[in-house]
Amino acid sequence: MKQVDYPAVEILIVDNGTDDTEALEYLHSLEGQGARILHIPGPFNYSALNNAAVRQTRTEYLCFLNNDVEMMDSAWLRSMIAQAMRADIGAVGARLLYPDHTIQHAGVVTGIGGGAGHAHRFQALEAEGYFNRANLPQRTNAVTGACMILARHKFLAAGGFDEVNFPVAFNDVDLCLKLNERGWQSFYEPRATLIHHESKSRGTIGQG
């Protein structure tokens, strides 16, 4: 189960009304390997589900990770934690690829489409692109909650995810902007690269 090279990791899985027998059996098997399962039935509210999960943990750093993210190696967490430990950094996001290895997330830029959008989307992994930006660690407007790490005290200081105004989408961007306002800039870390089967388990309503 553990696909991460890090000395101490607490794994808490939020089950939002899973009814698939195979999936439930898999969750049960993960409990036997040390993971905890938090069962929260009801309508899907990404913000509420993850805020509830945070209340059930005591770790110094929080990693929000979608169930449709696939690890390519075990070093990704160390790269992200190293940035999240910096006093001036808030949320840290990984480089996420589609299964065909084109870019799904390389930071979030506000203003796209009147809201926010992922930078360098669909660019080939091996492409240099605009000033090689997709391959360079850098500060950014925001990062996606599909794979996000930040210090617990910063998450709490920003008020966590907004359960009322952003129950499904843009809650990650909202959190990043609140962190930015407090002097904790969002950061994109491409040395942590993972596969994101975008919204695979929920269709288009899931977190991006």
Automatic annotation (TrEMBL):
Residue span, Glycosyltransferase 2-like domain: 3-102
Protein name from the UniProt record: Glycosyltransferase
InterPro entries, sorted: Glyco_trans_2-like, Nucleotide-diphossugar_trans
Entries under Pfam families matching the protein: Glycos_transf_2
Source organism of the structure: Sphingomonas daechungensis
Xref: SUPFAM superfamilies: Nucleotide-diphospho-sugar transferases (SSF53448)
Top-level lineage group: Bacteria
